[in-house]
Amino acid sequence: MKKIFSLTGAVAFNSFMESVRNRFFTLFAVFAFAAIYASVLAGVMAVDQEARVLTDFGLALMELVALAYALFSASSVLLREAETKTIYLVFSRPVPRSAYLAGKLAGSLMTSALMLAVMGLMHLLLLKFRGFGVPPGYAWALSGSLLKLAVITSFAFFVSLFSTSAVSTLVISGVFWTAGHFVTETRFLAESSGGAVAAALKAAIWIIPNLQLFNARDAAGASCALGPAAFFSAAAWVAGSYLAAVWLISGKEF
Amino acid sequence: MTRLALPAAALLAWSAGAVVSYGYYHSPFPPPSEIRTPAAGAAGDMFALAFGARRLFADVWFIRLMQYYGTPELQEGETESSEEAHERINSAGRYPDFLARARHVLEIDPGFVMAALYGTGSLAFNMGRPAEAQELLEYALKYSPREWKYLNVLAAIGYSKAEDPAAVAGAITPILKDPDCPVMLKQQAAFLNKKIGNYAAAAAIYADIASTSRDMAYVRNAERELQKFSKVLPAGQRRD
Amino acid sequence: MSQHAVSFSAVEKTYRRPRLLGAVYFTGVKDLSFEIPAGEVTGLLGLNGAGKTTIMKLIGGLLFPTAGKVKVFGQSPQGGAAKARVGFLPELPYFPPQVKPGDALSYYGRLSGLSGADLDAAVESAMQRTGLEPHAGKRVSEFSKGMLQRLGLAQALLHSPDLLVLDEPVSGLDPLAIHDIRGLLAGLNADGRTIFLSSHSISEVEKLCARVLIMVRGRLARTVKRAEWEAAPGGLEAIFVEAVR
Fold first, then answer.
1. Terminal CA-to-CA distance of chain C, rounded, Å?
2. Do C110 and A6 touch (CB under 8 A)?
3. Is B30 among the domain residues?
4. How many domains does chain A have?
């Protein structure tokens, strides 16, 4: 068991360092530029609502920037490693495929966590510069974004193992992401319709993870605290995607 | 058998996530049937829902509402009476879509208390449309039934109908120090206090507007009022 | 312990290529049986598409046989025990351009189960054996093809494997690099390691190997021992040309 953890850790750290070497932090500049631009606009247009607009814009942008990087990375990493034959050097060693996959997922989540932390710090500095304090529930909002990213990244890894290209993985995961925010609306529609439509909608509710559960940044103040159910569901969905991915990769040839 | 164990475990884990989520999560948001999207804003609402960015898009709708209502600044050197300024800033009697637009902000983010107070305050006290203000407030209360500020404004609307400005000012006063209180409501409270001769209270509110608001139209008006009060009020009651 | 490092017994590998409707199948290797004796250098010759890389990947546990059995030191090549004894070098190995050779080797060393002082010693030894030590401070992006191949060999040597499986180890290298790598492989074989290499270069195989397998269209056409090609007029090349025609 210790050996498996050690191998997983090695893959995770290497994956994280590769992201750092790939200069993902250039995205921080994009974030900083967009946030400052929004700040100027909000100052002019939102007047007394500047703090709220800046907070909401910053949190949404942070999540989208981290999502874009996580999805691009998760959808292409296995394909790229197979194309460059890097995976041969890994799987010709006594590395269980489950440990490799866990390491890749952990590395991706470490990258997402770092991105959110750095962008969060930049965002708070901008708010401070504009004369505002830390918005209520800020840490919960970032935690919720990280849980969402964990669910969608593990799902993207799973999809990348059967999809024919990185683009199709991106599209499928992107659709899943948006559908995940529509689950409450889908639930309402399922309850207000009948027959085959209701059955199809109910099935969709079970298949699509409810990302609104983690959407603390859309809730206000104290009500945004994430409950144990959010953490449990995130862990269960990540585990579900991971186990399905392990199943696929264990039969995969390179 | 081993080949089946992994997909079975995956399904089990996924279902566990769905079961807990289904049991635990109760949406604080209005159902889609309640969202009356203006045609020009359908794409924005789609993004709001699809990216879980209701607050951000509610902000956008609120900015649009403020732009629709408008708060033009005074030209340099232009002078007007405080009643004229109050009427001008609040532009009573027009804006037929105001209720629909204000309600739409709450349809997207029912927790946007400041937008609800701004909408109801504008409708009730500036435009003289208390029925519409009440309708908006009832919608806001449906999703935030414990919001005391809404109840105070509801009471203020009642007093307003009874033409009791002192009671209206009294009902609004507790809201004024709340961070969700829109500057428009502060301005209303100051105006009413001045109207009933409570100059010290009015001056205190104008001083608060001048020091906290970033809306220059309100700030300049407050500064003008404070200048006037400095001539009327004894030194101890001045806030400037 | 098995006296054969590798044994193939009636092995068949069929690839499946999915199409819009159904799939097409083509054979990589068929009815393949051979052994690689432990401690020997065995070469694998064949034209493009003859099945050389398929054999290498089957030994590395990267492909699963459609039929038959592959054994590495008497065990399944997919198992950890067999993999721990194999060092694998694919054709044209890739390393991230920003890393230094020591970092890349440390990563693969960890994946081979090494850690701490053992890992440091293994990295140092592999760099030394492959002549990478003078280039330790450079990044992979600054490496020539020959140096990349040395780095590929170094990662295969890290865990002191008993069997080295090398797919085209001298492909595209200049004569000096080929000479160096040949010397390195001869030294490793002298240490008692089994080496199985594929190549397009008959002269290289001729110089290094004790036995050669010649593959033709997925089947083993001939197994030739050094004594045979040394006795034959025209050497190994003539035997190869005759086998593939």
1. 39
2. yes
3. no
4. 1
Is residue C114, in this structure, part of any structural domain at all? yes
| Model confidence pLDDT, tens digit, residues B150-164 | 999 999 999 998 989
Chain B residues whose beta carbon lies within 8 Å of the beta carbon of residue A244: 6-7, 10, 14
Same domain, C81 and C100: no
Q: Nearest by CB to A233, which of B21, B114, B182?
A: B21
- Indicate yes or no: CB of B7 within 8 angstroms of CB of A243: yes
Q: Rounded to a whole number, what is the distance in Å from the CA of C69 to chain A's nearest CA? A: 17
How many structural domains are present in chain B? 1
Dist CA C32 CA C221 (whole Å): 10
Contact B68/A at CB under 8 A: no
Q: Does C112 touch chain A (CB under 8 A)?
A: yes
The radius of gyration of chain C's CA atoms, rounded to the nearest angstrom, is 18
Chain C interface includes A96 (CB < 8 A): yes
pLDDT digits 0-9 by tens, C134-169: 999 999 999 998 899 999 999 999 999 999 999 999
Domain CATH code at residue B121:
1.25.40
Q: Is residue C91 part of a domain?
A: no
**Which site among C70, C100, C110 would you substitute to test the A interface, given the most A Cβ atoms closer than 10 Å to its Cβ?**
C110
Strand order in the sheet with C41-46: C86-89, C163-167, C194-198, C41-46, C211-216, C219-225
Identify the CATH number of the domain in which residue C171 sits.
Answer: 3.40.50.300
Domain ranges, residue B62: 39-237
Query: Cα torsion for A45, A48, A49, A54, to the nearest 10°?
Result: 70
Looking at the complex, does the CB of residue A68 fall below 8 Å from at least one CB of chain C? no
What's the CA gap between B205 and B201, in Å, rounded?
6
Tokens, residue C79? 């198992």
pTM: 0.88
Report if residue C40 sits inside a domain.
Answer: yes
CB contact under 8 A, C96 and A95: no
Asked if the structure places residue C90 within a domain, the reply is no
Domain co-membership, C168 together with C156: no
Query: What number is the ipTM of this complex?
Result: 0.90
Which residues constitute the domain of residue C211? 4-85+164-244
Return d(Cα A27, Cα A5) in angstroms, integer. 31
Q: How far apart are CA B106 and CA B119, in angstroms?
A: 10
Element (H, E) at A243: helix A228-250
